[in-house]
Amino acid sequence: MATTSTYYLNAPDLSSATAIFTDSALTTCAPNGYYRQGAVVRQLVGCVLLPPQTCPTCADNCGTTVEAVTTEGVYNIPIYTGEGPADVGAIVIRFDPLTVPDGIQATYDGVVYNTLSSPNYGLLSGATGLATYIGDSGADCGLVIDSPYVLDVYSWYGSSFNPTSTTETVSVISGQLDLTASTPGTCVMVVPKPIATPAVIDLKVISPCPLTDFVMSIDCPVLLESFESTVVWETFASACVALQNQTYHYVHVNGAAGVLGLYDWVFSDYYGENVLPDGYYGSTAVPSPNTWFRVQDGIIVEFGGC
Predict the structure, then answer these.
(1) β-strands 102-108, 246-251: how paired?
(2) Residue 112 has pLDDT above 70, yes or no
(3) What mean pLDDT comes out for the span 72-99?
(4) Which of 34-48, 56-70, 161-175, 260-274: highest mean pLDDT?
(5) What is the C-alpha end-to-end distance of the chain, expressed in Å?
(6) Domains of the chain: which residue ranges?
(7) Mean pLDDT throughout 270-278?
(8) Burial class of residue 286 in the structure, from the number of CB atoms within 10 Å of its CB (0-12 exposed, 13-18 middle, 19+ buried)
(9) Bridge partners of 21?
(10) What is the pLDDT of residue 54?
């Protein structure tokens, strides 16, 4: 069981310390075990602190909104999504970089997710396994490709970002940039969670520009809502006469109340693991007077009528 006590560090905070002591003279080492200060958790073994770790009790719960008006930095956001039998489905993340570009990625169960759908531009995605930078290209603060940026690292806990007293060197490659002519709006990322564990999803926002702000919401995992459709076809004419005998699933980006919208995500499963193949689909779940929609890269890019 965790207890609260007074300990002494040989540095300003737990992130930068190398040991923990029970006296202010720093002569008596604290007992072996795990210690937490804010969002930082470290294990002490033989008076030596091991690297920081993330534990579920040190992550804010899903269903939270993160807002930042700050300077350049790396912002780590661990979120606890539950570990019970009902804590499965799709984790829907909504991220608005506002104007100044930021990089975003989500890591869950060892997989890095970096693909979003913008309500204004559709698919936004960068190099595999790396953060995707989105935002207004006219406000990119002169980002220099392949130039290293040494950024302070912050960790989200208790409704605020806390300094970790560490830095991270970030190099932005051209394949990570998917900037747009104006603000992309509140973009949507979907992370599948088909089983209850692991419980924590790790989000990272990288802000290399001197002044930045962003808003992010992280929903708890839910099984996705469904709609009826045809199978995929190569032409809209074929989709128009086909039977609507398939059940698919969606995450709204511009749609609402079960009516599909432009740039909505569409999946073949209710966990959000498998996007629909590219092509044409007939459905009654499209906005009137349309009767079909076209999918590209897992999002709806066009509607039309028969």
Answers:
(1) unpaired
(2) yes
(3) 95
(4) 260-274
(5) 65
(6) 8-49, 56-218, 226-304
(7) 98
(8) buried
(9) 8, 29
(10) 54
Return the residue matching tokens 């737990």.
14
Query: What is d(CA 65, CA 9) in angstroms, rounded to the nearest whole number?
Result: 32
Tokens, residue 59: 């992550």
pTM: 0.84
pLDDT at 1: 39
Residue 275 confidence (pLDDT) above 50: yes
Residue 295 tokens, joined = 């999918």
Structure tokens at 283: 């459905």
Q: Which amino acid is at 6?
A: T
SS in 3 state form for the chain? CCCCCCCEECCCCCCCCCCEECCCCCCCECCCEEEEECCEEEEEECCEECCCECCHHHCEECCEEEEEEEEEEEEEEEEECCCCCCCCEEEEEEEECCCCCEEEEEEECCEEECEEEECCCEEEECCCCCCEEECEHHHCCCCCCCCEEEEEEEEECCCCEEEEEEEEEEECCHHHECCECCCCCCEEEEEEECCCCCCEEEEEEEEEEEEEEEEEEECCCECCCEEEECCCECCHHHHHHCCCCEEEEEECCCCECCECCCCCEEECCCCCCCECCCEEEECCCCCCCCCEEEEECCEEEEEECC
Token pair for residue 168? 């991270």
Look up the CATH architecture of domain 56-218.
Sandwich (2.60)
